[in-house]
């Protein structure tokens, strides 16, 4: 039986690899953004010289720059396709292994089902976030590679806290991934450091004696500090190229614009992943307080309905009548089809403020903020009532908040687009999977729930794509 299960697992991953490789092969190698600018340097420098060059010039992401060098050195599309497909495979396997550690009995009886559960959970992430981080040249080496290192970095600390079996191979991969993620995209570096440190704190509180946990915690903190000392990172941090006047923004306006960006990212660009998270919380309360569970599921349903309406409101043939009822519009015009331009061209006139917004948008911003606060408090309540998972839930919650809040300090807040939400979405679905496992919902119902959410996410993606095509035709 075990051998038969292994064959199915291998078959699942082979099919998945071929699918990802096929998608990568269809996407042309042109329009690679940052990669295009680095081709001359990559082709004229060996690896060490190239890493030293970017370290001193504009980057602390040595692991990502290694990926860029591998991709640009021979200008090889096939190299990028194979590497990115392998990292995609590694990301899903890392998510699966983390989810496996959440089981109450720490037993993996249905490995094939776990793979599908991990794939479906990943499929709840917005298609634009996945497209710009997993299938776009510059996005893949900076975000996909970082995400894979991130999940494998936090794998062993999570297993140690949850008293799950952690093999020597996993420990070696986790240590290597720790080194890689500390020199990766900043969101993944910061959240990895937070989760590993919280896990180390949890082992102390729970009196778990783990030399490995101590080593990884020290390594993570030390290498993160070293990476932040990069001359190139300091120069880039002091730049206002993407948002002139960014550092001189009044604190109140700066905080509001960050909050507005965060709210928009959660509601409009992370909709189905957020619905999965809210539904998972509702599932936890279902056997404990059905009224609370129904209220939580109602919030998820309302968010999903509002998202469907927002998609309909942008259809060219219906826009004249429906355009005014985009219920998820919180006044951030960057995502509007009517205003796709970059903010930094004229930030003083294109940027908006609280006074500029209408009363209905004011109401939405306040109400949606309150809803998210309620969901966060319910997550804290779940952590408080489940001592075994408390440290992990708090670590994930803090990491999600930090992942979003980091954009407050970046002048690329309006330039980077959906890809900056990838780290938040990864942690969001991991938290949802954890809460789902803690609940009393049976396995088959879990799969049905996430399958439904992912299917809806795909339909919404099709709607967005059709709208985009229609605006180019009509």
Automatic annotation (TrEMBL):
Coiled-coil residues: none
Superkingdom: Bacteria
Transmembrane annotation, as ranges: 7-27, 78-95, 115-138, 144-162, 212-230, 266-287, 299-318, 361-380, 392-409, 421-438, 450-470
Record's signal peptide: none
Alphabetized UniProt keyword annotations: Membrane, Transmembrane, Transmembrane helix
InterPro entries reported for this sequence: DUF6056
Pfam families documented for this protein: DUF6056
Transferase listed as a keyword: no
Official protein name in the record: EpsG family protein
């Amino acid at each position: 039986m075990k051998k038969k299960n292994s064959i199915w697992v291998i078959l699942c991953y082979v099919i998945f690899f071929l699918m990802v490789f096929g998608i990568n092969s269809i996407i042309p190698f042109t329009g690679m953004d940052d990669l295009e600018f680095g081709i001359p340097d990559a082709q004229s420098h060996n690896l060490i010289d190239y890493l030293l060059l970017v370290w001193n010039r504009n980057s602390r992401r040595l692991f990502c720059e290694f990926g860029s060098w591998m991709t640009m050195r021979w200008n090889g599309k096939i190299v990028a396709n194979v590497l990115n497909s392998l990292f995609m495979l590694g990301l899903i396997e890392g998510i699966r292994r983390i989810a496996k550690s959440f089981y109450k009995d720490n037993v993996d009886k249905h490995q094939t089902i776990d793979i599908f559960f991990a794939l479906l959970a990943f499929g709840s992430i917005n298609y634009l976030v996945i497209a710009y981080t997993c299938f776009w040249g510059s996005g893949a080496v900076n975000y996909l590679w970082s995400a894979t290192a991130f999940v494998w970095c936090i794998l062993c600390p999570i297993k140690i806290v949850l008293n799950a079996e952690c093999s020597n191979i996993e420990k070696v991969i986790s240590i290597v991934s720790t080194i890689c993620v500390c020199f990766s995209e900043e969101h993944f570096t910061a959240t990895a450091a937070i989760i590993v440190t919280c896990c180390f704190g949890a082992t102390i509180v729970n009196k778990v004696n783990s030399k490995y946990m101590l080593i990884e915690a020290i390594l993570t903190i030390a290498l993160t500090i070293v990476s932040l000392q990069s001359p190139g990172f300091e120069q880039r941090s002091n730049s206002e190229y993407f948002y002139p006047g960014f550092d001189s923004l009044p604190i109140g306006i700066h905080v509001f614009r960050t909050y507005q960006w965060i709210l928009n990212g959660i509601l409009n660009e992370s909709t189905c992943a957020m619905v999965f998270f809210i539904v998972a919380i509702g599932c936890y309360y279902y056997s404990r307080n059905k009224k609370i569970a129904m209220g939580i599921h109602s919030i998820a349903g309302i968010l999903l309905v509002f998202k469907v309406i927002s998609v309909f409101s942008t259809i060219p043939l219906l826009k004249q009548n429906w355009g005014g009822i985009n219920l998820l519009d919180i006044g951030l015009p960057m995502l509007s089809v009517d205003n796709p331009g970059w903010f930094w061209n004229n930030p003083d006139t294109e940027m908006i403020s609280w006074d500029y917004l209408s009363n209905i948008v004011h109401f939405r911003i306040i109400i949606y903020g309150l809803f998210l606060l309620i969901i966060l408090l319910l997550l804290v309540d779940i952590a408080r009532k489940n001592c075994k998972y408390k440290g992990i839930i708090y670590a994930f919650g803090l990491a999600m908040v930090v992942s979003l809040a980091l954009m407050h300090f970046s002048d690329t807040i309006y330039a980077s687009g959906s890809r900056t939400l990838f780290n938040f979405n990864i942690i969001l679905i991991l938290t949802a999977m954890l809460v789902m496992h803690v609940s009393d919902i049976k396995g088959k119902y879990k799969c049905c729930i996430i399958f439904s959410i992912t299917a809806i996410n795909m339909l919404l993606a099709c709607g967005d794509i059709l709208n985009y095509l229609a605006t180019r035709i009509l």
